[in-house]
Design brief:
Order of helices and strands: HHHHHHHHHHH
Oligomer: single chain
Radius of gyration: 21 Å
Shape: elongated
Number of domains: 1
Number of helices: 11
Strand content: under 5%
Number of strands: 0
Largest sheet: none
């Protein structure tokens, strides 16, 4: 190998060095929207199993089974729809990954970082005729839109694990997750 060839190769790798992390970061942020990304962490297995279970009556499974969110189902529900919501959701995903690899994350430790805003549900449902024509929604619409009554108050379980966790602690979880008519 000639000296000139070695120098050109060295220059190429030197130029590639700062570009590679940028493309890796972009690729990782896009991958973080996929269910397969969430499923890649073994602590998320129970949530993914519930999501993909054709017999589960959880809200997540019903949405997944009926493709109410056509793709990126975990991300579609868990991203906030405000200006920085997508970035915030991905940074929280990075926190999950860090806890998984560098912490001692256990399934019991997995919780939302903040209260689940109704806007995440309303982003899709507020424009639905079925939603707007439901008597309970009409009666409480102002409070639902103001996030004073949580969607999850009536629409439970979000994930099947809510029932399992509640049963272990002796709590009853009310709700009515149903298949659409």
């Amino acid at each position: 190998m000639s000296g000139r060839y070695k120098l050109a190769l060295f220059a190429f790798f030197l130029a590639l060095a700062p570009i590679l992390p940028v493309f890796t970061g972009i690729y990782s942020f896009v991958q973080a929207e996929k269910v397969s990304f969430c499923a890649s962490c073994h602590t998320m297995t129970p949530w993914i199993n519930d999501l993909e279970n054709p017999k589960s009556r959880s809200l997540a499974a019903i949405h997944y089974r009926n493709r109410f969110i056509p793709h990126d189902q975990c991300y579609g529900c868990h991203v906030d729809y405000d200006f920085l919501g997508p970035i915030d959701a991905k940074l929280q995903g990075v926190e999950h990954v860090a806890a998984y690899y560098f912490g001692n994350a256990k399934r019991e430790d997995i919780k939302l970082y903040k209260r689940f805003p109704n806007e995440n549900c309303l982003h899709c449902h507020v424009h639905s005729t079925q939603f707007a024509e439901t008597a309970a929604h009409r009666a409480e619409m102002a409070q639902i839109l103001a996030d004073q009554i949580k969607c999850a108050t009536c629409h439970r379980p979000i994930h099947k694990l809510e029932f399992e966790s509640a049963a272990r602690s002796g709590v009853t979880v009310a709700g009515n997750a149903e298949e659409p008519r």
